[in-house]
Amino acid sequence: MHSSIRRDTRDVEKQAHLRELDTNRVAIGHAFVDNHTFDEVCAAIIQHATERRAPTHVITPNAQHVVLLDTDPRLRRIYERADLVVPDGVSLLLAARFHGYSLKERVTGVDIFKTLCILAARNGLRVFLLGGLPGSAERAAEVLKREAHDLIYETWCPPLGFEKSAIELNTIAEAIRRAKPHILFVALGAPKQEYWIHEHGLKLSVPVSVGVGGSFEIVGGVVPRAPLIIQRAGCEWLYRLCREPRRMWRRYLIGNLQFLWIVLLQRLRRALLDRVLLLAVQDRFAAELDEIAARQPGAYARLIAAVAHREVEAVRDPTAA
């Protein structure tokens, strides 16, 4: 097995919820990212799956997701309905820090996939691996069974263009229903895997569905993962770019520039919004707000709600200049 971040799975089987509070989130572009540790996320998923609660959707965004969200309203709606959104990339942690917030740690799709499979085997839970390159799901499962001997799994590798075929979609749905998994891992790449989970996966009574991108290939050894020191430095993207420059240059070079631009513009908008709200709570816009209240009561109520929930210095200190 290739070098990867090792996780201690002994202490994550405690009670937890997929999301504690909506306020414990950080907006990076259009992605509202939950602020939880890796162990907290795994604990919440395992408990939810064990109790076979209502179907939930976990998303693991990176910089590419943030770029896609900037121009994809359909994907935005899926993110809004997701039950947990955790930061796959170091870039999201850095962006949060740039905005003055802090995310606890990376929660990568690869590590979630590996750890949840180990915990599933320990707890007698079934998993289903959907997608990946032909044979990669089986190879990943075989690798995982060396550590998790009791892993109960099924795999399915749909053909290209399956999402346009009602027959293929029904075949996949029937295979998943027969397997009755507790956790469904979907490796179709973004945003296809998010589209499929939202439109089809959540209808299959699987407690937890997780989009895991290229995790099957990495865990199965089809695609090597960056050495541990590169992972910890947050430079896995550079490792992949060096290995596959023709395929990855647009995603990582142009995509990373787009991500930086999105984050910078958001920082500027936040600064502007903070200034406007500061003036608003100081009654600098009293006459204008009264006019809005008279003409558009609903708009006024939304503005007041935004002021009430926005953490600006003026709310804590009304005398601030």
Question: Would you write up a description of this structure?
Answer:
This protein has 321 residues and is of the alpha/beta class. Helices cover 52% and strands 11% of the residues. The protein folds into 2 domains: 25-243, no CATH class; 250-316. The protein has 15 helices and 8 strands. The strands form 2 sheets. The protein has a 6-stranded parallel beta sheet with strand order 4-3-8-7-5-6, sandwiched between helices. α1 (38-50) packs across α5 (109-122). The chain is globular, with a radius of gyration of 22 Å. The model is unreliable at 1-16 and 311-321 (pLDDT under 50).
Instruction: State mean pLDDT (0 to 100 scale).
Output: 86
The helix/strand series, from N terminus to C terminus, equals: EEHEHHEHHEHEHEHEHHHHHHH
Which percent band covers the strand fraction? 5-15%
Return the structural class: alpha/beta
**Which of globular, elongated, flat, extended, rod-shaped describes the shape?**
globular
Strand order of the largest sheet: 4-3-8-7-5-6
Overall number of domains? 2
Through-space gap between termini: 59 Å
Please give the radius of gyration in angstroms. 22 Å
Largest sheet: 6 strands, parallel
